[in-house]
Design goal:
By secondary structure, the protein is mainly alpha-helical. The chain has one domain. It is 85% helix and 0% strand. It is built from four helices and no strands. Helix 2 runs antiparallel to helix 4. The two termini are 13 Å apart.
């Protein structure tokens, strides 16, 4: 089978199309959530400095745990993607590979 024909077969395969849709969905959702978290934090810095400067203790302001939360949430989003990829994506890729004989 020619390389071009194999590519067309893969692109027209229903499982490959599902794979693309699922990967696009999870990628877009996690990207949007990450952007909301990061830009939300930057917006707080830009528009509500007094809130971020308010003290929780003598030396710690509310901005510090929020900043740590932004970092932790980015790790969580990465973990969600890795979990999804290991649980769903790899299985879907293997299914497509089996169909095309790789």
């Amino acid at each position: 089978m020619s390389n071009k024909k194999k590519k067309l077969e893969i692109l027209n395969d229903i499982d490959f199309k599902k794979l693309r849709v699922h990967k696009s969905f999870i990628t877009i959702v996690l990207t949007i959530l990450t952007l909301i978290v990061y830009y939300g934090f930057i917006s707080l810095i830009a528009f509500n400095k007094p809130f971020l400067a308010s003290k929780i203790t003598q030396t710690i302001t509310i901005g510090i745990p929020i900043g740590i939360g932004v970092i932790v949430l980015s790790w969580v989003f990465t973990g969600i993607y890795v979990w999804w990829a290991n649980k769903k994506y790899d299985h879907m890729v293997n299914k497509v590979k089996e169909k095309i004989g790789e």
